[in-house]
Amino acid sequence: MSRDLTIAASTKLDGGAVPASKAIRRLRWFITAFERQVDQTAIATGISFDVSQTALVQVFAEWIRAFDAQKPAADDDRRAYVGFAAGLMLRALMRRAPLTVLSFPPDADHADPRYFWPEGYVYTQFCLDGRGLVLKQDFDESQEVIAAYSDVEVWWSFKENAQEDTNLAIAYLEMFAGDEPHWSTPSNFFCRTTKGLSRIADVSRASLGA
Amino acid sequence: MGELRVGLVTTSFVLPLRDAARGARSIAALPERLLPPPDEFLPGPLRGVVRGAVDKAREAREHTVFHKRPTLRQMFAAYDGLHGTMTDVEAVGPVAIIIAYAIERTLARQPDPGYLVSETVVAFCTAEALRNAPEDATPSERVARVLEALQSAPVITRLPGAGGGSIVDDQRHLELGLVAAGLWFLADRGAIDADDERVLDLCVAFAAEGGSEACEAFGETDRLASTLEHMAAMI
Fold first, then answer.
1. Cα distance from B174 to chain A (closest Cα, Å)?
2. Interface membership of A65 toward B (CB under 8 Å)
3. Tens of pLDDT along B121-160?
4. Does residue A203 sit at the B interface (CB-CB below 8 Å)?
5. CA-closest candidate to residue A95, choices A162, A28, A33
6. Counting beta carbons within 10 angstroms of the beta carbon of residue A101, is it exposed (0 to 12), middle (13 to 18) or buried (19 or more)?
């Protein structure tokens, strides 16, 4: 059964007067928006969560370091970096795990991804919403989440793989968002840049010629 | 310069009293940590007396006003003070309260928070740093100068009987507490409101996670100012 697991990003992650791409890089906004995401999921599902503020600050600090480390200089790569940065956020959330499920409602349907892996769902939805909002504001682009996002079997594989290697969370987010997932080099942005793609093409041509 | 001295005279009675009360609160916390294992071995009647004393000490600590966060008025005055919209004399007291609180919150994150923070020392160093700051100094430069003055001052003291790490660790905790206060002073906000209490706690947590670069910049005022400014933009 296909379920609509998404919530309109603009209803939750509004940065107010500050553009979303800037607001998202502020600790206060990040914590408030994340807590709002948790509250909305709790209301929609009946699941109750505990949120660790300490872990949230750790997530933000880890994410901002990773964000600054690979931020591209070329304007051509900005669009691709929005998706990549959302993946970095998902990786940091998976690593620091700020959420704990306290209880499920009696009628919880564990074939629904939200009940199958509630923490993973909140982390992923938060990152998708942030990604969607920045793409809308900065590139006038609508995010189309793939149909498999509501397939619990996909989430089963996502959970297992991401728990084994958190870098893969970046590729899964790309897949859910309808982008080309980078399964072999998920944490390397250079492979997604104009320059990187051209270098890869050169290397491929050279190896074919040899 | 003379005006500032007059200002300090008015606070010179209040600040040591605040430090004394803060010390009483901290020392009152000690028996709770030190006694529980031995009291198991005491004879019944004596155990009751010891436990009663510990309970009284805990009660005293919980009722002291110095356990409270800075008030909105203090936060407002401190923020204005370091942004140059208030005279240095008026600013010193509230600024010292914010800085001392940020250091206390940082120390409270340690496994054995047996420290005393001197608001008096903080106030005197702050006054000195503000007095020596150039008139055209930016807010981040003023903040950096104040923090640098405090970094080498005897702001924290380990309480007798408390365990803990090395002097190097103590210095690191002090620096992270100072960075936290600096972030709070420089963080962008529309207005000081009730949410600012939370902002101060977030600054403490963020400094603990990402404050290393700022700690390394102590001693280079311009670098410290720009690092704090960069970090504060993320709050």
1. 20
2. yes
3. 999 999 999 888 898 899 999 999 999 999 999 999 887 7
4. no
5. A162
6. middle
B162 to chain A, minimum CA–CA distance in Å?
25
d(CA A205, CA B52): 82
Contacts of B210 in chain A (CB under 8 A): 61, 64-65
Nearest CB neighbour to B209, from listed A26, A28, A61:
A61
- β-pair partners for A125: none
pLDDT of residue B115: 84
Tell me the CA distances in angstroms from A86 to A67, A127, A134, one per residue in order: 9, 5, 10
What angle in degrees, to the nearest 10, is found between the helix axes of B88-108 and B195-210? 60
Q: What is the pLDDT of residue A203?
A: 75
Q: Is A8 on the interface with B (CB under 8 A)?
A: no
Cβ neighbours of residue B143 closer than 8 Å, sequence gap 6 or more: B82, B182, B185, B186, B225, B228
Residues 6+ apart with CB under 8 A from A80: A72, A189, A192, A193
Interface of B with A in 189-208 (CB under 8 A): 195, 199, 202, 205-206, 208
Q: What are the structure tokens assigned to A115, written together?
A: 């009940």
Q: Which of B195, B208, B234 sits opposite A27 (nearest CB)?
A: B234
* Mean pLDDT for chain B overall: 78
Task: Report helix, strand or coil for A74.
Answer: coil
Nearest to A57 among B199, B209, B233 (CB): B209
Tens of pLDDT, residue by residue over B156-199, are 988 776 666 777 888 999 999 999 999 999 998 765 566 777 88
CA-wise closest residue to B122 among B151, B142, B144: B151
Mutate to test the interface with A, among B192, B203, B206 (most CBs of A within 10 A): B206
pLDDT per position as a tens digit, A31-85:
999 999 999 999 999 999 999 999 999 999 999 999 999 999 888 899 999 999 9
pTM for the whole structure = 0.77
Shortest Cα–Cα distance, B206 to chain A (Å)? 6
Task: Mark yes or no for CB contact A58/B206 under 8 Å.
Answer: no
